[in-house]
C-alpha cells in the first residue's frame, strides 16, 4: 500500500505543501469544479471546463527558460519532480512567454493532459502557482482557465518584531502564509522603544543591549545581518520584498538606552518594557544623531535589495513640530544618499516629502485633507487605516488577544472598504496599494500571530489584488470558508468568525 494515499490524506498533504511520501496513484476524488469560484484573492476571470487533470506518479513539472526557481518551489510543495521543457505526458508546465508587462499577471490553463501557467515574469508564474495550489483537491485539478493580474502593485503585510521578538523560522512561516495570498511586500518593524532587532556593526550595543528586552520583560533578541539576509532571501524566493523600518525620531528608547551620547542631556534612559507610545525622541539638535543615522541607514541599505527603507515618523509626541520637520527632511536626504527611497508613516506629509517618498496612512478616518493634498502633489500612499487594516485590533470585545484603540474589526469590516476611493480627495493614481500591519504588544507566538491574521489577512490581500468589480461580501465569505481546510492542514491557528460559514470539520 506504500504507493496508495487515501484521498483525504492526499488532500491534506497537498494543501500542507509538505509530505515525506511521493504523490503516487492517489485515489481520484470527484474534481471540485466550484474551485474556480473559490480562489482567494478573487482573480480577474476564472471558469471551469470539462475534464480533470490527475496528479499521479507520472506527473512532472516542466520549467521553461527562467522558470526554474518557481518550478523548484512548486516541486517542493507538491513533492513532484521538475524537468526541462519538451517532454510530453502528464505535466504541469511553467512558461515564461509573452510581453513582460512589468507586473505579476499570469494565465492558467488546466486540461486533462496538462496544466500550463504562462506569465511574462517569474513573479507572475509564482502568483499562478498559488492559484493552482487552491485548485487542487484530492490530487485532482478540475479543467478550467484563469486569467489574472493585480489591481495594486503594493500588497503588504507588516510584522512588529520589536514589541515581541520573532525568530527567523517564525518570520519565514509567516512569509509562507503571506505568499499564498499574493502579498508581495513584508514590512519589518525592526526598532521601537522596547527593542532594537537588527545588528548594526558600527553601533553594536543597539542589538546586544537595546535588543535584550521585549514587552512585559519577555525575552528579547535580534537578527544578525546574516540572519536578516536569510529572511530577505527567503522572502525573495516567494517574490516578497522586505522593507525594513527603523522608527524615527520617536519610538527610539532602545537606541537612546544603548548610547548615552544620543540623548540631548547625555544620560541614557533605562530599557523599557511597557506599552506606552510617544515618550522618546532622538536629539534633533545634535550632529551625532545624523552620524548615527547615516551609519544605520548605510548598513541597512547594504543588506536590503528592495528600493524602500521605512523611517517611521509616527507618534513623535516628544519632538516639537519644528524639530520634526527638520529631522524628517534631513533623514530623507540620508536615505536618498544611500540609494534608497523613503516609506514613512503619513505624518511625513507635514514635512516635505521627496518626490519618491511614499506615505503609509494609518489614521482611522477617510478624511485627512493634509494627506489628500500631498497625494495631489504626487506623494504616493499606501493604505493601512487602523480601524480597518490593523491585524492587532480585536475582532470583538471577547477576543483574548490584541488591542481595541482604533476599532473592533470583524472580517466584514476588514473586507468592507475600497482602497481606490477610500481617502477623500486623493487621486486614485496616488494609491500604491494596501498593507495589513500586525503590532505585537500582546502577541508572543506564531499561533498568536495567526489567530489575528487569519482570516483578516486574506481579506486585505484580496482588496490589494482583486479588481474592484469582484468585490462582493456574500461571495467572499463563501470563498474564505473554503480556505479553512487548507489552514487546518497547514496548522494555521485561525479565528472561527461567526460571519463565515466554515465547513463543519473546521
Ligand atoms: C499605533 S499607528 C502605533 C504602534 C502601536 C499600535 C498598536 C502607528 C504607526 N503606531 O506604535 O504598536 O498603534 O495598535
Could you write a compact summary of the structure shown?
It is built from 16 helices and 16 strands.
List the helices and strands and how they pair.
Blueprint: H1 7-16, E1 45-54, E2 60-63, H2 68-78, E3 82-83, E4 91-96, E5 106-110, E6 114-119, H3 122-135, E7 140-148, E8 154-160, H4 168-179, E9 185-192, E10 195-196, H5 205-208, H6 225-237, E11 241-248, H7 253-258, H8 287-302, E12 308-312, H9 321-337, E13 341-345, E14 358-361, H10 369-376, E15 380-383, H11 386-389, H12 411-415, E16 431-438, H13 446-453, H14 456-465, H15 473-481, H16 484-490
Parallel strand pairs: 2-3, 2-4, 4-6, 8-9, 8-16, 9-11, 11-12, 12-13, 13-14, 14-15, 15-16
Antiparallel strand pairs: 1-7, 5-6, 5-7, 9-10
The structure holds ligand TNX.
Ligand TNX binds at residues 277, 314-315, 345, 362, 386, 390, 392, 403, 439, 441.
Amino acid at each position: 500500500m506504500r504507493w496508495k494515499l487515501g484521498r483525504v490524506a492526499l488532500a491534506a498533504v497537498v494543501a500542507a505543501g509538505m509530505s515525506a511520501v511521493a504523490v503516487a496513484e492517489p485515489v481520484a476524488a470527484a474534481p471540485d469544479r466550484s474551485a474556480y469560484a473559490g480562489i482567494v484573492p478573487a482573480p480577474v476571470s476564472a471558469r471551469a471546463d470539462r475534464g480533470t487533470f490527475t496528479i499521479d506518479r507520472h506527473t512532472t513539472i516542466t520549467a521553461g527558460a527562467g522558470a526554474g526557481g518557481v518550478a523548484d518551489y512548486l516541486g517542493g510543495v507538491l513533492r513532484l519532480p521538475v524537468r526541462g521543457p519538451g517532454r510530453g505526458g502528464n505535466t504541469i508546465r511553467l512558461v515564461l512567454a509573452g510581453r513582460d508587462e512589468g507586473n505579476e499577471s499570469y494565465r492558467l490553463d488546466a486540461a486533462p493532459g496538462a496544466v500550463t501557467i504562462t506569465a511574462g515574469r517569474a513573479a507572475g508564474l509564482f502568483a499562478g502557482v498559488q492559484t493552482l495550489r487552491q485548485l487542487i483537491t484530492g490530487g485532482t485539478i478540475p479543467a478550467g482557465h484563469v486569467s489574472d493580474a493585480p489591481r495594486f502593485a503594493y500588497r503588504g503585510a507588516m510584522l512588529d518584531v520589536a514589541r515581541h521578538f520573532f525568530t527567523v523560522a517564525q518570520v519565514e512561516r509567516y512569509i509562507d502564509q503571506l505568499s499564498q495570498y499574493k502579498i508581495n511586500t513584508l514590512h519589518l518593524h525592526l526598532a521601537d522603544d522596547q527593542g532594537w532587532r537588527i545588528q548594526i556593526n558600527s553601533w553594536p550595543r543597539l542589538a546586544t543591549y537595546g535588543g535584550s528586552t521585549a514587552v512585559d520583560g519577555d525575552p528579547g533578541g535580534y537578527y544578525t545581518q546574516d540572519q536578516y539576509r536569510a529572511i530577505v532571501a527567503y522572502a525573495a524566493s516567494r517574490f516578497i520584498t522586505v522593507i525594513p523600518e527603523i522608527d524615527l525620531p520617536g519610538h527610539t528608547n532602545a537606541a537612546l538606552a544603548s548610547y548615552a551620547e544620543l540623548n540631548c542631556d547625555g544620560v541614557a534612559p533605562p530599557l523599557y518594557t511597557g506599552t506606552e507610545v510617544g515618550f522618546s525622541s532622538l536629539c534633533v539638535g545634535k550632529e551625532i544623531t545624523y552620524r548615527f543615522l547615516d551609519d544605520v541607514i548605510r548598513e541597512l541599505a547594504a543588506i536590503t535589495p528592495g528600493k524602500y527603507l521605512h523611517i517611521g515618523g509616527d507618534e513623535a509626541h516628544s519632538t516639537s513640530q519644528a524639530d520634526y520637520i527638520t529631522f524628517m527632511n534631513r533623514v530623507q536626504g540620508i536615505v536618498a544618499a544611500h540609494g534608497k527611497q523613503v516609506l514613512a508613516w503619513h505624518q511625513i506629509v507635514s514635512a516635505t516629502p521627496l518626490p519618491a517618498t511614499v506615505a503609509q496612512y494609518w489614521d482611522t478616518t477617510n478624511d485627512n485633507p493634509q494627506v489628500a493634498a500631498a497625494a495631489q502633489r504626487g506623494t504616493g500612499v499606501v493604505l493601512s487605516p487602523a480601524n480597518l487594516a490593523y491585524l492587532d485590533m480585536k475582532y470583538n470585545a471577547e477576543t483574548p488577544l490584541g488591542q481595541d484603540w482604533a476599532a473592533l474589526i470583524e472580517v466584514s469590516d476588514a473586507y468592507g472598504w475600497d482602497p481606490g476611493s477610500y481617502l477623500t480627495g486623493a487621486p486614485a493614481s496616488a494609491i500604491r496599494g494596501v498593507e495589513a500591519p500586525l503590532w505585537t504588544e500582546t502577541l508572543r507566538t506564531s499561533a498568536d500571530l495567526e489567530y489575528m491574521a487569519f482570516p483578516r489577512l486574506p481579506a486585505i490581500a484580496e482588496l490589494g489584488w482583486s479588481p474592484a468589480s469582484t468585490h462582493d461580501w456574500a461571495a467572499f465569505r463563501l470563498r474564505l470558508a473554503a480556505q479553512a481546510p487548507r489552514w487546518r492542514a497547514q496548522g494555521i491557528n485561525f479565528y472561527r468568525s461567526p460571519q463565515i460559514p466554515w465547513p463543519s470539520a473546521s
